[in-house]
Design brief:
Radius of gyration: 16 Å
Shape: globular
Oligomer: single chain
Helix content: under 10%
Distance between the termini: 21 Å
Strand order of the largest sheet: 1-4-3-2-5-6
CATH superfamily of one domain: Aminomethyltransferase beta-barrel domains
Number of strands: 6
CATH topology of one domain: Elongation Factor Tu (Ef-tu), domain 3
CATH architecture of one domain: Beta Barrel
Structural class: mainly beta
């Protein structure tokens, strides 16, 4: 679930957080934020993704994401929240990244206190209860 102050803020459009469906522009008349929603985010605005990784070290809020593990890799995003999932048994995180790095299966690297750990973009939700 997106958390205000991490995945949601006054600077983030609902569509960037995967919540475009909750804001209806079919409503008659004006409402606070309508003109901003109609304008939409810039084409290169970062989008929210889910990440999973191995081991016990989780990316935390404000940790940078890179497109490689070497020193000349490019920073492509920022972790917004993360934790070791007791249900799944491995680290999970959410992050905003440049749109070209949002495809499920893309490998990124989280800088966890100076060490870059591999993480894979995955689909949300992280967990679905079996019916």
């Amino acid at each position: 679930m997106p958390l205000y102050g991490h995945e949601l803020s006054t600077e983030i459009f609902p569509v960037q957080a995967g919540l475009g469906r909750v804001v209806s522009l079919k409503k008659e008349g004006d409402f606070v934020g309508r003109s901003a929603i109609e304008a939409g985010p810039p084409a290169d605005a970062r989008v929210l993704i889910a990440l999973t990784s191995e081991g016990r070290r989780a990316g935390r809020a404000d940790y940078p994401l890179y497109d490689g593990e070497d020193a000349d890799a490019t920073e492509v995003g920022t972790v917004t929240s993360g934790a070791l999932s007791p249900t799944l048994g491995h680290p999970i995180a959410m992050a905003y990244v440049d749109p070209q790095y949002s495809e499920v299966g893309t490998e990124l690297f989280i800088d966890v206190r100076g060490k870059r750990i591999p993480a894979s973009v995955t689909a949300l939700p992280f967990y679905k209860r079996k019916a």
